[in-house]
Amino acid sequence: MRTAHSVDAVRNAERELMARLPEGALMKRAAAGLATACAGLLKDLLGRVYGARVVLLVGSGDNGGDALYAGARLARRGAGVRVVPLAPGRTHPGGLAALLAAGGRVAEDPFEVLATADLVLDGITGIGGHGGLRPDALPVVRAARGGGAMVVAVDLPSGVEADSGEVTGEAVRADATVTFGTYKPGLLIDPGHERAGALRLVDIGLGPYLPSVPELEALQHADVARLLPVPVGESDKYRRGVVGVVAGSARYPGAAVLAVSGALRGGAGAVRYVGPGGEAVLARFPETLVHEGPPSGAGRVQAWAVGPGLGDGSWAAAAVADVLAADVPVLVDADGLRLLAERTVRERTAPTLLTPHAGEAAALLGVDREEVEAGRLAAVRELAARYGATVLLKGSTTLVAEPASGSASGSASGSASEPGAAPPVRVNPTGTPWLATAGSGDVLSGLAGSLLAAGLPARDAASAAAYLHGLSARLASRGAPVAADDVAAWLPEAWRNVVG
Ligand SMILES: NC(=O)C1=CN([C@@H]2O[C@H](COP(=O)(O)OP(=O)(O)OC[C@H]3O[C@@H](n4cnc5c(N)ncnc54)[C@H](O)[C@@H]3O)[C@@H](O)[C@H]2O)[C@@H](O)CC1
Ligand SMILES: Nc1ncnc2c1ncn2[C@@H]1O[C@H](COP(=O)(O)OP(=O)(O)O)[C@@H](O)[C@H]1O
Ligand SMILES: [K+]
Fold first, then answer.
1. What is the CATH number of the domain that holds 162?
2. Which domain holds residue 138?
3. Which one, out of 102, 323, 344, 500, has a CA that is 20 to 30 A from the CA of 275?
4. Are residues 14 and 28 in the same domain?
5. Does any ligand 1 atom lie closer than 6 A to the CB of residue 91?
6. Do 118 and 131 meet the contact criterion of CB atoms below 8 Å apart?
7. Which of helix, strand or coil describes residue 392?
8. Within this chain, do residues 432 and 319 fall inside the same structural domain, yes or no?
9. 209 and 232 in one domain?
10. Ligand 1 contact via 14 beta carbon (within 6 Å)
11. Closest approach atom of ligand 2 to CA 442
C-alpha cells in the first residue's frame, strides 16, 4: 500500500525528527537520496554522470536547498552543474555555498544552459508552495521542457498543491519526482499526479514520527488480492451472494447489458436483472435471472446496483426508491444519482455507495464540474459527509471516500481509524485515459455491486472494483482504444493478474 500524508503531518514529523539530529542533517539525507536517484537517471540516459549537463531551478525555500546539495554531489561526480536562482538574494545559503565549493556555477544565461541540459532539477517550491507558478518562473520552466532535458521534480512538481493535487495556472511537468519521507496527496491525485511522472520515495527516517492513519492510501496488487472473495468447498451460488442490477431503458438497453457483464465477473454467485432490458440481457448472458416487476419483488439479493441508463421516467424513480428501501447494500450510479433524495440516503442503515463522475458529483454538490475536477479530494469528502455514504468519484485517479463513522451507521464499516474520524481516502492507481469511453462506468457499477453482494464493505468493494476495472482496461488496451465491452471481457484476466 502506498500512503500519503498531509503537509501538516510532514512538518510535525520533520520537527520531531530534526530535534534529534544535527542541524541540516535531514536536508542532507534528502539531498543524498535525490542525488543517487538523479545519478541513476543520468546513467540510464547517457551511461555516465561525469560530463552530464545539469541545471538547477532554485526557489527561495528548503526545496531549493535540497536541489543545491544534490547538485553539489553531482558536481563532485563530474557533472557540469549550473544554478538558475529564481529568487536571487534568497537562495538557500548553505546549499549555494556547497554547490559553488563543489565546482557548480550560477548560470549567466538561464536559457542558454536550459537549451543544452541533460537533466533539470525543479527545486522552485515543494510543500511550502502555494498558488501555482509565479509569472517570473514561467519562461524558465517552459524552456526546461522545451530543451528536451529530463525534468526531475524535487519532492513535488512546483505549482502543484501538496495537499490536494490542485494546480492553479501552470505547474512543472516532470518526467520523475523524487519525494521525501512519504508521498504527498498531490502526487497521487490529478491534476497533480499527471505532472509528477514516475514517483520515487526516498526514506529520510520520518516513518516513526508520521501519524499511523495517513491522509490517502493507494492499494496495490497484494492489498486487492486480500480483499477479493474466493469461493470455498461449501459455497453455493446463494452463499456467494446474489447481486441485483437495475439498469437500462428502452432508450439505453446497452447499459443493462454492460452493467450485467461487470456484475457477472465480480464474484457474486448469481446476477438478477430487473428492468426493461431483460431481452437484450438474456440474449447476451443467458445465465442472468431476469425479472420485470419492481425490484422488491425480484427475490432475495445481497446487494443492488441501480442507475446506469435508467433514464428519469416514473418507472426509474420508483425503482430507485424501491431499492433504497431495501435493507441491503445499494450502489447508486448515473441516472440513479439524479433520482436520489439526500435524506433518504442519510436515513438508510445498510451501506450506500454512490459512484458519480465529475459532472454528476457537481450536480449533487450544486457546483460547476470544473470545480470538482480541480479539487477532487475536497469534492469526494464533501459528498461522503453530506450523504453519509461511501462515494467513489470516477475519472482519472478515481477516489473513494467514506464518511466519518457515526454519520451513517451502515457505510463506515472497514474503518481502521479512531472512532469518529473518516478513514483515509483511497486513490486508485490503475486505469488509463482510454477508459473514458461510453459505457465503461456501467461495467464498473455491475462489478462493484457484485463485490458488495459477495460481502465486501462498501469502501473495499468500491476500491477493489476501481482497481480491477482500471487494470482490465490497461490489459485490454495496451496502447489502443478500448470499448466498454472489452473492459468487461478482460476482467477475469485482471483478476488473475491480481491474485496470481
Ligand atoms: N524541513 C526540512 O528539514 C526538510 C525539508 N525538505 C524540503 O523542504 C521543502 C519545504 O521547504 P520550505 O518550507 O522552505 O518551502 P518551499 O521550498 O517549498 O517553498 C517556500 C518558499 O517558496 C516561496 N513560494 C511559495 N509559493 C510560491 C510560488 N507559487 N512561487 C514561487 N515561490 C513561492 C515562499 O515564499 C517560500 O520562500 C520540502 O518540500 C522539501 O523539499 C527536505 O529537505 C527534507 C527535510
Ligand atoms: N481521463 C481519465 N483517465 C482514466 N480513467 C478515466 C478518465 N476519464 C474517465 N475515466 C474512467 O472511465 C469510466 C467512465 O465512467 P462514466 O463516466 O460513468 O461513463 P459512462 O457513463 O459512459 O459509463 C470511469 O471508470 C472513470 O473512472
Ligand atoms: K519542486
1. 3.40.50.10260
2. 2-217
3. 344
4. yes
5. no
6. no
7. strand
8. yes
9. no
10. yes
11. 23
